[in-house]
UniProtKB/TrEMBL annotation:
PROSITE patterns: CYTOCHROME_P450. It comes from Parascedosporium putredinis. Heme binds at C425. Gene3D superfamilies: Cytochrome P450. Its cofactor is heme. This is Eburicol 14-alpha-demethylase. Belongs to the cytochrome P450 family.
Amino acid sequence: MGVFQQAIEPLQERFQELGTGSQVGVSFVAFIFLAVVLNVLKQLFFSNPNEPPMFFKKMRAKHGDVYTFVLLGKKMTVCLGTKGNDFILNGKLRDVNAEEIYTVLTTPVFGRDVVYDCPNAKLMEQKKFMKGSLTTEAFRSYVPIITEEVNNYFRTTSTYKAKSGTMNVAKAMAEVTIFTASHSLQGKEIRDQFDESLADLYHDLDMGFTAINFILHWAPLPGTRSETTPSAPRLMNATYKNGIKIPDHEIAHMMIALLMAGQHSSSSTSSWIMLRLAQNPEIMEELYQEQVRALGKDLPPLQYEDLAKLPLNQAIIKETLRLHAPIHSIMRAVKSPMPVPGSKWVIPTSHTLLSAPGLSASDPQFFPSPDAWDPHRWEKDSPNAPTIVRQEAEEDDEKIDYGYGLVSKGAGSPYLPFGAGRHRCIGEHFANVQLQTLVANVVRTFKFKNVDGGKTIVGTDYQSLFSRPLEPCNIHWERRDEA
Ligand code: HEM
């Protein structure tokens, strides 16, 4: 007799002893239970990581801009389009809450009492403190540091010692991102604590940001524990508004947050940039020529001021973020019933809100040929130039300070890779400086093409909340001075 049969036999006997009514009841409960289990298993094991998350586009075509679906037993209400972005990202503090959703994942990484492990008002103050190391003056010193790290990486890593070869883009960009960010934001001492084996740890952390970890956060799933807590320098002389000096552990945790908050986003973006350049070698050549024209044939070491002279170099980042925004799903808990403007619906507190600004960034209503990666579209006269209709232009221009500096009040733009509202990214300028400096230096060093010489590009892995290229993602490189 099989083990399964042994286990099931007593249950069968008990079932047969029940009356018909009870049998129907038990069967019904068993059916519901089985349906839920199968649905959960289907979402866990059979979801296609190549599909856009939650089939946003397909669902939108079927149900419109606002709809609810069930994810692992939780009701998720999606609000799409520019109005949906605004509704969620500019939701009032009494209505929406980010920390309840994110804390289970970020607190083990950043540490306690910072970011989502504290009330929102405290986070707003902490964002202001963290922005202290993200000033123009600081960026001026960061460009030579980032340049040095990028060039050292491609000079000293054994893979790149030949004249040509294959680059594992995800690995290289994870490493370059942590080296450039740690050296510029936290100094050489901290940078020297990182070595290449860290890339694997970061991958594990990425996988901690999957939907299942939000919901089953108590389960021992990969990525929910981190040992990556480098010691951090002090935030000098800062005090909270209530006069309390920032405790040492909060300073350390804020420094970790500053490093970690951008790691996945920046390395995913730089990976996509490298893949797009390999897909479009002619654009890589244009980038090189742009530098020769703007900075001179001898290409002196890059300075912060040079970045503004390289519009195509800037557009590469903008266009890549349009098609490959690393944070594809932004979530909020609903704290009080929220009426959806222009409808009879009220979103109850049992639902979780989900915003996907990446969808409006690839909406043909705003971006002609939306699926084409065309950095030239950001030039005024391009046929693909965004036809961004600012529905509430005046409101958009209005600025508001949530406690960490002025930001646009509205979220009416279809292009919001850095979010909007009180949770808007504070790392936008740093990320731009980091990515533009990286691209400018890479273009000076290499020529890229696809490994097969073709024009294809890998799909997107949406398994984690950070989208990134599906692996393997390799490109062919050749040293420019050898070409
Ligand atoms: C390409 C790079 C980046 C992208 C696309 C990006 C995107 C975003 C987005 C969409 C949000 C809003 C999340 C939400 O509303 O729930 C956000 C928040 C944030 N980002 Fe970034 N980010 C990037 C790089 C960085 C960097 C380099 C740093 C730090 C130096 C950073 C620090 C933060 C912080 C502290 C928040 C605030 C979270 C909050 O207030 O809830 N980000 N980012």
